[in-house]
Amino acid sequence: MKKKVAASVKRSSAKSNKKKIVRSKKTMPSKKSSAPSAKPSFTQDPVFTQAVQNYEAGLKAMQEHKFEKAKPLLEKIIASGPKELADRARMHLNSCNQQLVSSATTFKSQEEHFDYAVSLMNGGQYDQARVHLEKILKQNSKADFALYGLALLDCLTGQVESSLKNLSEAIRLNPQNRFQARNDSDFQNMADDPRFTELLYPEPGESTFTKV
Q1: Are residues 141 and 180 in the same domain?
Q2: Neighbouring residues of 155: CB distance < 8 A, sequence distance ≥ 6
Q3: Which residues of 89-108 are buried (b: 16+ CB within 10 A; e: fewer)?
Q4: Are residues 111 and 73 in the same domain?
Q5: Rounded to an integer, what distance in angstroms lies between the CA atom of residue 134 and that of residue 138?
Q6: By three-state DSSP, how is residue 4 classified?
Q7: Within this chain, do residues 72 and 123 fall inside the same structural domain, yes or no?
Q8: Whether 92 and 167 share a structural domain
Q9: How far lies 49's CA from each of 38, 40, 45, 88, 89, in Å?
């Protein structure tokens, strides 16, 4: 009888030990995995932010034909900006330098300057051609041939309203521009526009230029 009692005591103590072990496992705190530290993004980098601002300002200046203003902004990006922006800035800077060189070209007369602008237009360099035509008009606001050139350029680039306005002013200053425009194939984009027809073939007694 004593052996049986001893055995039962051993079994009961073993069961209680197992329960204690299980309970201790349940109450053990689980280790929390530490979250990886966030890497700083480009948008948080003040150098990158400044480079982006310079890049956008440089492009805006180029679109406005302010190449003298655009050049130093692009040079700053190339010198200290991130590579992906520096590569783009370098490409725009080359174009900017070409514009500055062409605009600095000297001409003996306004007619010679106009011929150069027309050659740029014929070569598809519309932005550069516009710069030179506008430069002629700054020197002489009554240069009807420059207004006629701008009218052609506006027509070629789809700016119909501006083309009609410039052509109307060119005809007002020099009525011979009306006859030249009638045979000018570069105005074919406006051939079906009734305002263009009225401008070139006005009714007898009407004004020599049309309001647009």
Answers
A1: yes
A2: 163, 186, 187, 189, 190
A3: beebbeebeebeebeeeeee
A4: no
A5: 6
A6: helix
A7: no
A8: no
A9: 19, 13, 6, 16, 15
In this structure, are residues 99 and 131 in contact, taking their beta carbons and an 8 Å threshold?
yes
Q: Structural domain of residue 171, as residue ranges?
A: 107-200
**pLDDT (tens place) for every residue of the chain, 212 residues total:** 445 545 444 555 555 554 444 444 444 455 555 545 545 454 568 888 888 999 999 999 888 878 878 889 998 889 888 888 889 999 998 888 877 776 666 788 889 999 989 998 998 889 889 989 999 999 999 999 999 999 999 999 999 999 999 999 999 999 999 999 999 999 999 999 999 999 999 987 655 554 54
Indicate whether 52 and 132 sit together in one domain.
no
Residue 152, H or E segment: helix 144-156
Return the CATH number at 65. Answer: 1.20.58
- Residue 174: is it exposed, middle or buried by C-beta count within 10 angstroms (0-12/13-18/19+)? middle
Residue 38 lies in a domain: no
What are the backbone dihedrals phi and psi of residue 159, each rounded to the nearest 5 degrees, phi first?
Answer: -100, 80
Residue 156, both tokens: 């070629």
Q: What is the number of structural domains in the chain?
A: 2
Distance CA 153, CA 159 (A): 8
pTM of the predicted model as reported, rounded to 2 decimal places? 0.54
